[in-house]
What does this fold into?
Amino acid sequence: MTVQGESAEHQWVDDHAGPVVRPYAVTRGRARPVTGTFDLISLVTATRADVSAEVGLGPEHLAIVGLCQRVQSVAEIAAHLDLPVGAIRVLLGDLVARNLVQVREPRTSAGLPDNSVFEAVINGLRAL
Amino acid sequence: MDYGHSERPAGATPLPTAIKILIAGGFGVGKTTMVGAVSETRPLRTEEVLTESGVGIDDLSGVESKSTTTVAMDFGRITISDDLVLYLFGTPGQDRFWFVWDELALGAIGAVVLADTRRLADCFPSIDYFEGRGTPFVVAVNCFEGAKQYRLDEVQAALNLDPGVPVLLCDARRRESSKEVLITLLEHAMKTRDARRTLD
It folds into this structure.
């Protein structure tokens, strides 16, 4: 981190930097996760029922573990924690590195899924 | 590592597969309305904070001079089954956020382009984008009260669409109508995929 003292802090709190300040304070200045890519619809589930505070984990990490007792997408986690997706990706990287969450990446390769997937979705929609 | 907690049994079960459909169209055409009409909860909002060149991990110098933009996306979830979850994403309205579209379109199984006949040109960029990318899409004309009703073939001609692209009327506020749009899209996407396979 090259930000030093209070004068640097003032530079953050201008109109342009405004939305950046809190998210990247939460990630302690990191813009990229230590591991993983995390698509918006990557699904995340906690591997443990609860995690107590430990060194390197902030309240937002614990909040994600709490939220992901039910399977959630990266986008949903971001929405519920009211943080930008970029910050959530960093936090998820930390949790993956500690085996506290399990992630399933969506298929993003070229081509469309099989009929079984389409039919399941169509039937699911009809049943709504 | 031992955290002193037992593994949750659910952690052993396979996670569901997630798929996504995009809801595109001009500003105020009803994208979020449609997302809300069929989703299991009210639409959620997620934000990407973007800087011109991205924020480097160790390079915070000059951050104050980079312009940052927040791009908001509204989305909803439909749990189809224990192993399948569908997400609907409303695309950001402004053309300058194309790079967000690229991320959204990656892996999307299809798109709904919502159109308003009073401002038909607003949906041109969305149509161009999905045509160029080869993403299967349908055009759903959201029937606003007070708007002149056009025949579907008139809309199709005005949009200069490929004859195979479905065009249908809808009321984005209504669940049944929005469901019909999504089902039409899924059927069209299946046909598109089969046609491409035949060509290969």
Confidence is low (pLDDT under 50) at residues 1-10 of chain A. Residues 32-126 of chain A form a domain with the Arc Repressor Mutant, subunit A fold (CATH 1.10.10.10). The helical segments of chain A are 5-12, 18-26, 59-67, 74-81, 85-97, 115-126. The radius of gyration of chain A is 18 Å.
